[in-house]
Write a structure and sequence with these properties.
Elements: H1 8-20, E1 23-24, H2 25-36, H3 40-52, E2 56-59, E3 62-65, H4 69-84, H5 89-97, H6 104-117
Antiparallel strand pairs: 1-3, 2-3
């Protein structure tokens, strides 16, 4: 994938596609007209941008994802941690949690998650 950041309108559009894919481009135009008050040209311009970013493809007038929503946001999250916290997950978690206290259930959930991803 070429770029991991989306503008707000791109995110809304991408979420709309992920929720409905595969979807015909004609149907997508109709939905965008209703949901966003977009003209046909706006929908196709936005679709072209997201296809160029490697997120979707439009083949034979059918729009589908090249990567899942979860994969996209996972990559975006990893890129954020890499750029903002020098790739350090502990630094990110410290900043994210701040001065809040974690419940016993949250601590146990995080321990289980860490164990699932621990290197052997």
């Amino acid at each position: 994938m070429k770029e991991h950041k989306l503008a707000t309108s791109e995110k809304r559009f991408a979420d709309l596609i992920w929720d409905r894919e595969p979807i015909g481009s004609t149907e997508l135009v109709k939905i965008c007209e209703q949901e966003f008050d977009w003209k046909k040209s706006t929908t196709y311009t936005m679709l072209k941008k997201l296809c160029e970013k490697g997120i979707f493809k439009n083949e034979h007038a059918i729009v589908s994802a090249q990567i899942s929503r979860e994969e996209f946001y996972g990559r975006q999250s990893r890129e954020f941690v890499a750029d903002t916290f020098d790739g350090s997950l502990p630094k990110f978690l410290t900043a994210f949690i701040g001065k809040k206290k974690l419940s016993d259930a949250q601590v146990e959930e995080m321990k289980a998650l860490i164990e699932n991803y621990r290197e052997s």
